[in-house]
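Hi, here's the filled form for the chain we discussed.

Project: internal
Contact: R.S.
Residues: 194
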Amino acid sequence: MHWQHTLYVWTRKDFFTLKELERMCQKEKGITSMSVKDILTSLVDDAMVDTDKIGTSVYFWAFPSKASQNRKRKINDVTNQLEEFESKKKALTESVLRAKVGKEDNDDRSELLAELVVKKDEKSRLMSELDLYRECDPDVLQEVQNQTVVAKEAANRWTDNVFSIKSWIKRKFSFEESVIDKQFDIPEDFDYVE
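And the returned structure, exactly as it came back:
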C-alpha cells in the first residue's frame, strides 16, 4: 500500500506540501485527504519519502535515485551478512569435525561411556551419603564449637548490660530489684550462661 503511494510521488519527480499532496491524492487517486497525512507519516518513518521544513512550510519528496541507492545498500548489507554467516558456518563445521577426531563410535568407546555413566551415578550416591554424615565432620564440629563460644560471649555481654541497667535504675529511682524484675519480665533465675 505504501509503495503505491510512493510511486505516485516518484512519478512526479517534484516536492510537495501536505496540502498539495492531500488535494492531488484525492483528485487523482481517490485517497481521502484524512488518510494522506497518516500514509505520508508512515512513508517518512520507513524512509521511503523525505521531508524537510523550509521556512514555515513542510515539504515532501521521493526521488527514484534515493530508493535505488537504498536498495543497493540493503543488497550490499545482506550480501555481507551472508558472507559472514557462511564463514561462521564453515568455521563451525571445521570445529565439529576436529571435535569428532578420536571420538568415533567403537566398542571400547561405548564401554567407556557406559562405565562413565555408572561412575557418575555412584559418585552422586556417595555424595548424598556423605551429606548424611556431614554433621560428624571434624571441621563442621569445630565451626559449631566456635559459633557456640561467640554466642555464649554475646549472651553474657547482654547479661552484663541488663545488670548494669538494673543497677542504674535502682540508684536513679530507688526501686527494689524485685520490682524491676517484675516490671521488665526478667526471670528470677536470670544469670550468666555457663
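Let me know if anything looks off before we file it.
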